[in-house]
Design brief:
- The chain is an alpha+beta fold.
- Strands 3, 7, 8, 9, 10, 11, 12, 21 and 24 form a nine-stranded mixed sheet that branches.
Length: about 575
Amino acid sequence: MRQQRMLIPTLRDVPGDAEVASHKLMLRAGLIRQLSSGIYSYLPLGLKALQHIQTIVREEMDAAGAQEMLMPALHPSELWKASGRWDVYGPELMRLEDRHGREFALGATHEEVITTIVKDEIQSYKKLPVTLYQIQTKYRDERRPRFGLLRGREFLMKDAYSFDRSQSGLDESYESMYKAYHRIFTRCGLNFRAVEADSGAIGGTDTHEFMALADIGEDTIVHCPSCQYAANLEKAVGQLPAPVDPVSNQSGLHAEPQKVHTPQVTSIKQLSEFLQISPKQIIKSIAIEANGKPVIVLLRGDCEVNEIKLKNALDGTEFTMLSESAIQQLGSIAGFIGPLGLQNVKIIADYSVIGMQDAVIGANEADYHLTHVQVERDLAGLAYHDLRNVTEGEHCLTCGHELSFAKGIEVGHVFKLGTKYSRSLGASFSDENGASEPIIMGCYGIGVSRVLAAIIEQNYDERGIIWPASVAPFAVHLLTVHVQDEIQMKLSTEIYKSLTDAGYSVLWDDREDRPGVKFNDADLLGFPLRITVGKKAAEHIVECKERLSGDQYELTAEQIIAHCQTFFQTGGRSSHE
């Protein structure tokens, strides 16, 4: 493609509303343009990169035995109501009415639609297993669209669904998709980790997220450098240090709970400073309301509650903080809540509370706390759950190595759905004996447009994008320094033809611009290999520059094809000596 004819509206200045590198660079390099908040058009270069990612996805999904199809983006509300998600999914679901007053939703995900299709088309075990997928635009009414393609209201997604007759069949389908995802993200040039995760509104169990490591990632990944353990913070577990600091007053280990005056001391920090003890010796009580009933949640003072874990411990029930008046009705007061003496209230505790000795709790009385509390003696019979966020310094439960923390961008998610949707929507099959059984499902998603942004977040420098060869809009950037020079244009034409005939995608910068402008644009666009035809054109000598390594060297025009073969066979890595 000749650059003079291609729509590549590059920008010199960084757009003011762009916060992260991928957003800035996609706007500057002319890949995308914003139509509305969270809604973008893909210009030719952006679309080419997106199509290359889609090709990788399709090749690996097809190789794993999945079959591509395409489903509607507009869903009748009846399907979502049948699955129970019309109300559960929340305000992110874009809802609308047609001229007849019938309710619809713009597809944020397609479990209901695909399950209905399979329900109508598959009734026998002989047609199972099957895995179906699509690549389609999805819609979510994000409260705060930001970061360009990383959090939009309209985005491109690959979603796949497996249908099996047994749990072992689902396990095989899940493993097949799990491995396919590793191949996809590796081919896309991403640095990623597969981490244990929570299934969220989609439901299901045994779920993993595929996270592209990036400092601007909105998710925190906890992983072990020594073994393979990795999990999203919402799911991560770790081994806390000792439950309490050494106790200087050993008599406190055997004393009965004692009420201590703590005037206007309502926070863990204040209490720690007032009593001159570590937060690890404090049990904090968090008062919430779930299903209209009060619940007290206990954690060690240096721990923070994990809302996802807490919700799961409450069997998926949504919860809110208990109001001050409701706390008073329990016989307590905000800032001084404690688990001793409360009536008609459910109490659950994090594992961090187990075995605490000489601990401090609220006394359920203004300006008072209780000291010398022994959990096993004074709070016997507590129901324990994993309710806290893992913190830095904790160790891996698998191998004992200290855990590491990183930020990540979610680019893929795999779920074992089980029968959640097949039961609610009536998708069943007849087994060998004629008995009817619900189909067992799995769900596997990739944010294709997110992958595009994540690739750029991991591959750029101060000059612009550095494309991995597998997804670059063009493999080679051919640059003619002076298009008025007949010798340079003649050699450029020959090189362009030989490269395209050899199957390489080439963008030929034949614009009548200053050399500096062309070189700056070439670095901004970031294609793997730049070939510059300049002052040595009469000698058939050109300059090559590798975008990733920055290496520059001269070749004869006759050496270019052989060099490109070697260069791209190694994934666009430097091979020149």
